[in-house]
């Protein structure tokens, strides 16, 4: 049966327009549960390892399911994680293939963007499971449903709490299925299952930053040749058609819209992705420190509000602190002041109140003018 196209209206409790960018009014997210069927649940059919040729991730291994001589984009090892084509005759069913070789690396094959989404969602699953012991979005061992080719001329991606939708770009030739973007959406669903940070105001900025943070961490974990890990957000999505990133974590103001430092009224910015700049900057400083630095060939130069030097504690510790805060301290009412308090409590619980990590959390927040 063909699923009806979701109405593009904002829905309470759903993170909307999750990679919407500067200067463009994005469509709101599809209503919860309006996409393809929930990810397939099965343990009967064996997992197989196929090869995928994605638009954004390049050539990668894919875990699929063999069923009656046909391969399906269902991953039995990751809770039935499944990937669908929105415009398929029956988009409740995942994509299928005869030889387990998927896509051709271009948009000529409708499988190529699906390779991106399937691989990236699997990487997100592995990161959260192996780092935090979280199996799936809800921690219940069930995989999400990823849907590609969503809408027409949609240069955005959306999460509905149980999966995500990815458009093919303004021209239908640039799918927003970059590794960090897919992981960004996966993380939005985790937020919905945990803290439920707001979708607007300062909480909306923290919500978007949370997804940027873990999208970045998944990118570093995957470490694939087609997408060198960095602190740039959505650089492979090519939204602008010039290869420029959507956002920059080391100095958010590089995008021309996002603030580097906190200021009153930040929650009134016209886009929560801009309000995310302060938390993204905090995370970069906590991870890597201030000043000029080259990581994997990319040059960063991160300023501080007071000019004080910050020495980072490493991205892995920084991510553990943010996740601990997300799952034990943050709530729908959390603002930037609350985020500072919550991450300090998380750092104390993980590393001790007298630890370098705790002191650096405090210093990094001060460096972005949250005190």
UniProtKB/TrEMBL annotation:
Gene3D superfamilies: 3.10.170.10, Neutral Protease Domain 2 (1.10.390.10). One of its GO terms (molecular function) is metal ion binding. CDD domains: M4_TLP (cd09597). GO terms for cellular component: extracellular region. The keyword NADP does not apply. Residues 49-190 form the Peptidase M4 domain. Residues 28-54 are annotated as: Disordered. Its cofactor is Zn(2+). The active site is at 185, 273 (proton donor). Pfam families: Peptidase_M4, Peptidase_M4_C. Belongs to the peptidase M4 family. Extracellular zinc metalloprotease. This is Neutral metalloproteinase. The lineage of its organism: Bacteria, Bacillati, Actinomycetota, Actinomycetes, Kitasatosporales.
């Amino acid at each position: 049966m063909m699923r009806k196209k979701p109405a593009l209206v904002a829905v309470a409790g759903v993170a909307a327009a999750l990679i919407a960018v500067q200067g463009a009014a994005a469509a709101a997210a599809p209503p919860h549960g309006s996409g393809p069927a929930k990810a397939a649940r099965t343990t009967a059919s064996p997992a197989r390892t196929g090869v995928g040729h994605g638009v954004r991730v390049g050539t990668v291994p894919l875990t699929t399911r063999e069923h009656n001589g046909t391969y399906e984009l269902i991953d039995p090892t990751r809770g039935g994680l499944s990937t669908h084509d929105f415009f398929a005759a029956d988009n409740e069913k995942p994509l299928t293939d005869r030889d387990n070789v998927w896509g051709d690396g271009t948009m000529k094959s409708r499988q190529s963007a699906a390779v991106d989404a399937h691989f990236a969602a699997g990487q997100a699953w592995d990161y959260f499971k192996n780092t935090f012991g979280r199996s799936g979005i809800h921690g219940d061992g069930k995989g999400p449903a990823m849907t590609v080719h969503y809408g027409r001329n949609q240069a955005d991606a959306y999460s509905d709490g149980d999966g995500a939708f990815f458009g093919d770009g303004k021209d239908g030739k640039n799918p927003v299925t970059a590794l960090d973007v897919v992981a960004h959406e996966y993380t939005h669903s985790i937020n919905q299952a945990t803290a439920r940070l707001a979708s607007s105001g300062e909480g909306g900025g923290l919500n978007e930053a949370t997804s940027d943070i873990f999208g970045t961490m998944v990118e570093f974990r995957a470490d694939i040749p087609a997408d060198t890990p960095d602190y740039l957000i959505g650089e492979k999505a090519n939204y602008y058609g010039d290869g420029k990133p959507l956002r920059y974590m080391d100095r958010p103001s590089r995008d021309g819209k996002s603030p580097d430092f906190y200021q009153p009224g930040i929650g009134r910015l016209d886009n929560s992705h801009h309000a995310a700049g302060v938390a993204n900057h905090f995370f970069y400083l906590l991870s890597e420190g201030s000043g000029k630095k080259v990581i994997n060939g990319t040059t960063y130069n991160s300023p501080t509000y007071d000019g004080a030097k910050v020495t980072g504690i490493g991205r892995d510790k920084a991510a553990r602190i943010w996740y601990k805060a997300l799952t034990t301290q943050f709530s729908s009412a959390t603002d930037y002041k609350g985020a500072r308090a919550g991450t300090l409590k998380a750092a104390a619980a993980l590393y001790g109140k007298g630890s370098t990590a705790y002191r650096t959390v405090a210093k990094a927040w001060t460096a972005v003018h949250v005190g």
